[in-house]
Amino acid sequence: MRPSHLLLGVLVAVLWGVNFTVIEIGLGHFPPLLFSALRFLVAAVPAVFLVGRPRVAWKWIVGVGLALGVAKFGLLFVGMGMGMPAGLSSLVLQVQAVFTAVFAAGFLGERPSRVRAAGMVVALAGIGVAAVDEGASGPLGGFLMVVAAAAAWGVSNVLTRRAAPPDALNFMVWVSTVPVLPLLVLSLLTEGPAEDLAALRALDPAGVGALLYVAWGATVLGFGAWGWLLRRHPASTVAPFSLLVPVFGMLSAAVFLDEAVTPLRWCAAALLVGGVALTSVVPGRRGGRAAVPSAARPPSAAVPSLAAAPRPEPAGPPAHPSAHSSDITDMGESRI
User: Fold this and answer.
1) Distance of CA 126 to the CA centre of its chain
2) CB neighbours of residue 1 within 10 Å
3) Rg of the chain, C-alpha, whole Å
């Protein structure tokens, strides 16, 4: 990989890591569900008029839009709105790799290797340590919301594998159109029209900046650069950059939000990142056959890596329904 490409991979990790800090800032200006709806609206428009028609069936766009946009980001924003720290959120979301591997085993028949299974155990141990730390110092309900968001991300990853989109950016832009209306309805029902209108009337440059960052910086720019790298390098080469996301997430939260990083949190970070590295990067098995390394997604906000570099089609029919997407990771931004 060229030095410029290495720097681009690190830049994407920075964009996605800092995104959690920006989300927390934005939550000071918007109710969580309204903020999430506006994020997708700004990400989709005007991009949806520039990327061309969808290149996969609408059932996959709607399915991923609901799982990733409504469930994953709705739960993440609500959890952070309940007081879940930005840095810890960036870390806990990494457990999506474990949920994805479990769901892929159940629905796609992808059996993890012993090393990958061990990685899942290590990552879950990290979640346990993080839960002890958060339960002692913060709202456990917000922590559970973010864990549920990671599970929803796992569902969207399995759906994305089945969709196997040939153009990741096109797919993500169209997926971004789906959550807008459901999130707006949920916001009106749970947060109330009065609170939503008050937030819009009080909009200031800081709120606009946070919205533009999470929509265009973390989503459009971050996801576009990630897809560009995946088209030029093996997924297993690009995947490790996503492990830097919680590092930059925790550092940016410490610098800009004065979030303390406790010894237990550092221990949780070591276990989670190490376990996810084994789960996401080490080759696994599919039905007893070796599988190519998977590409890790981004845990945040923004955009998961949704497709790997294209490759020639086999002469005969695929041996498994997900064979065309075996280079796609246990997908997760939109790493959006």
Assistant:
1) 18
2) 14
3) 18
Q: Which amino acid is at 227?
A: G
Name residue, tokens 């989300």: 23
Contacts of 80 (CB under 8 A, 6+ apart): 20, 23, 24, 27, 32, 86, 89, 142, 146
* Both structure tokens of 64: 């991923």
**What are 129-141's pLDDT values in tens digits?**
877 776 666 678 8
How is 64-129 classified by DSSP, letter by letter?
A: HIIIIIIIIHHHHHHHHHTT--HHHHHHHGGGHHHHHHHHHHHHS--PPPHHHHHHHHHHHHHHHH
- Give mean pLDDT, residues 135-155: 85
The SS3 of residue 290 is strand
Residue 52 is which amino acid?
G
Most trustworthy range by pLDDT among 48-62, 215-229, 249-263: 48-62
